[in-house]
Amino acid sequence: MGCHGGFALDEATRRSWYTPESILQELNSGMVFADIGCGDGFFTILAAKKVGEQGKVYAVDVDPAAIQRLKNKAKAEGLNNITAKVGMGEETVFCNKCVDVVFYSMVLHDFADTSKVLKNAKQMVKADGQLIDLDWKKQEMPFGPPFKIRFSEEQASNLIKNAGFQIDNVTFVGNYHYTITGKSFG
Questions:
Q1: 40: Cβ–Cβ under 8 A, 6 or more apart, which residues?
Q2: 148-164 per-position pLDDT tens digit
Q3: HSE-up (13 A, CA, CB side) for residue 40
Q4: Is residue 101 helix, strand or coil?
Q5: Is residue 115 one of the residues assigned to a domain?
Q6: Within a domain: 145
Q7: 7 within a domain of the structure (yes/no)
Q8: pTM for the complete prediction?
Q9: What residues make up the domain containing 89?
Q10: How distant, in Å, are the alpha carbons of 59, 63, 107, 172, 174 from that of 152?
């Protein structure tokens, strides 16, 4: 169970906010998915099931305990298509031009150098690949990250565009979140 802003990010809480399967609806068997800032792997596990044995999932987080929980969950579920490591998003490039989807779940504001993290995504993603950012709306809430560090949809879109992605859409997801989907270009 991950913790963010003093509250639990367990599966029931997340599912009360949004339907994770709809956020990952673009994933298909055989795809390669990278979960940057994966925590204990809520989306990593879902992605590994969607891409199947022919697919591959990369996951990174700075928290060794979270990565261990992810590895334990993957083992318990018999998922052998996940490569998970402890590391910083700013220093992580799993591969060059081999990822179909680079994914961020409520973490862009947590990175010390968000631009570097997004440039790493651009390096990893295939020419026709995409970036998905699920993030907190920039509004006051009794939970989640402090308002002052949240990115508005416009701020996050600009960061993603500056890293070399074209914004496909911005969608509000439930009461607390939005997603930005960007396509790689150039």
A1: 1, 2, 66, 67, 69, 70, 73
A2: 999 999 999 999 999 99
A3: 14
A4: strand
A5: yes
A6: yes
A7: no
A8: 0.93
A9: 30-184
A10: 25, 26, 13, 12, 16
